[in-house]
Amino acid sequence: MFRPMQTRTFGRLGWPVSTLGYGMWGLASWSGTERDEVDRALEAAVAAGVTFFDTAWGYGRGASEQILGQLVRAHPERRLFTASKIPPKNLTWPSQRGFSLDDCFPPDHIREYTEKSLEALGLPALDLMQFHVWEDAWARDERWQRAMDDLRREGLIRAVGVSVNRWEPWNCLETLRTGMVDAVQVIYNIFDQAPEDELFGVCQTLGVAVIARVPFDEGSLAGQLTADSTFPEGDFRRIYFGPENLGPTVQRVDALRGALPTDVTLPEVALRFSVSHPAVATVIPGMRRVAHVRANAAAVARGALPSPVIGALRTHRWDRSIASWSL
Ligand SMILES: NC(=O)c1ccc[n+]([C@@H]2O[C@H](COP(=O)([O-])OP(=O)(O)OC[C@H]3O[C@@H](n4cnc5c(N)ncnc54)[C@H](OP(=O)(O)O)[C@@H]3O)[C@@H](O)[C@H]2O)c1
Question: Which domains are seen in the chain, by residue range?
Fold first, then answer.
């Protein structure tokens, strides 16, 4: 049965965005992508009421942005919200302590890549432009603030976001307090619960929208991994699910599976966990298949998980530190 997609308010911007958004990294950069199926998945998402789409120049050097632009132009009847990201000038993910604003986001680079993104999208403006890595040490540097403000006043972007580095939800708090940032994109899932410690409260106080990314821990919480999983050269998951991480991840997913009620699937619980916190405006799973779009739309329609289930999932929190393989 078709149910209209729930919307939530995107922080102080007030945009009514779909609770289920769409992550557009994998479709331009991961192995196993079939373009026809991706096109059908995107259309299925629009049909299901998805209105928030997250891309980046870094996803295939503009390839993902081109796909999003085509989708938006094909649906002039729908208000589809577009979010992209400026790559760091040194093309190093994540940023590291000691990287300067000049290393990553000097003002001319901010403008150059905003123009590149708009060209790839084929659109006159972006709703949200995010920094693709971030260091809170840059918070008070007026150069990024002025550069983004100029882009906003010129109508090239409507809002400013920070995509905070993996497992560092604290690494943007001072920046949010400048009042210059409208949205934060952060990893938030059953394993990675640390955004609840401090970030979400700050966002709620300031009216900063939260975009919950990587709800499936890059696929493990969607039940896609076994101890023998391998990925081809060039696929990010070959590094992320390498020898140090694959075994411990599979063990934890097995433990989680064993604790779930029999009438729910792991992907459903994982996705509903990410939308259960009221600070979250939208969750953006990567989805390259129609079946995944439909399953995820149905899961989000079932709403927040009951508190006892959330309580039980607390024990599956997994705090990790940045490693050479974690990007
Ligand atoms: N630094 C950053 O700013 C940054 C970093 C990472 C990600 N992101 C953003 O966050 C988005 C989401 O993260 P992600 O794509 O890396 O990882 P993710 O959403 O945690 O996982 C994506 C994986 O889950 C699978 N999946 C989705 N729905 C499923 C379902 N119902 N059942 C089974 N499997 C399902 C997908 O399969 P299929 O693809 O086969 O459908 C894909 O393999 C990205 O696309 C990107 O927009 C941003």
Answer: 7-314 (3.20.20.100)
